[in-house]
């Protein structure tokens, strides 16, 4: 298992994987990431690629299993959600954690989180991420993978999000 920094030449692959995941979510009745299907990306993943903050995740057969973004600085979104808990200056803010649909249910999510911990050990003090509070399966998953649920916060639309940290 390995993480590989995405190059600007691979930006279209990133956007394709993001759209693939948004379609998968829609097929399961979720409207999460629905803006992606309208051609929008509120997290500006293409700009994150330029900042060298997006990583592909490959399995041992060198198949592209997923991807993740690890922001060096908190985004406007992070600042909103984490305001009540303080913004930690040497954190990586994790977004767009994706295991491609064909690879789901095979333990790759756990492997991806483990690879993130290894990748940023010594470079950052903490990994931070959030997920919808109503996504109980994901809340449980992050907890099972040693991320500490430090509380919850509301976005500007009144949706509740759980906040997680992992100290490196």
TrEMBL record:
The UniProt record lists the keyword Transferase: yes
Annotated N-acetyltransferase domain residues: 1-168
GO molecular function terms attached to this record: acyltransferase activity, transferring groups other than amino-acyl groups
Pfam families to which the protein is assigned, alphabetical: Acetyltransf_1 (PF00583)
InterPro entries, alphabetized: Acyl_CoA_acyltransferase, GNAT_dom
Keywords on record: Transferase
Protein name in the entry: GNAT family N-acetyltransferase
Native source species: Enterococcus quebecensis
């Amino acid at each position: 298992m390995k993480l590989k920094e995405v190059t600007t030449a691979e930006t279209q692959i990133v956007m394709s994987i993001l759209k693939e995941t948004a379609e998968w979510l829609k097929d399961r009745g979720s409207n999460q990431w629905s803006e992606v299907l309208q051609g929008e990306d509120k997290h500006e993943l293409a700009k994150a690629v330029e900042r060298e903050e997006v990583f592909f995740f490959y399995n041992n057969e060198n198949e592209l299993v997923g991807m993740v973004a690890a922001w060096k600085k908190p985004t406007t979104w992070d600042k909103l959600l984490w305001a009540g808990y303080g913004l930690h200056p040497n954190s990586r803010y994790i977004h767009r954690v994706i295991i491609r649909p064909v690879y789901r249910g095979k333990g790759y999510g756990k492997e991806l989180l483990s690879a993130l911990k290894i990748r940023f050990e010594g470079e950052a003090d903490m990994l931070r991420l959030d997920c919808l509070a109503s996504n109980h399966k994901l809340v449980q998953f992050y907890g099972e993978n040693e991320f500490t649920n430090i509380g919850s916060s509301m976005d500007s639309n009144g949706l509740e999000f759980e906040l997680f940290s992992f100290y490196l």
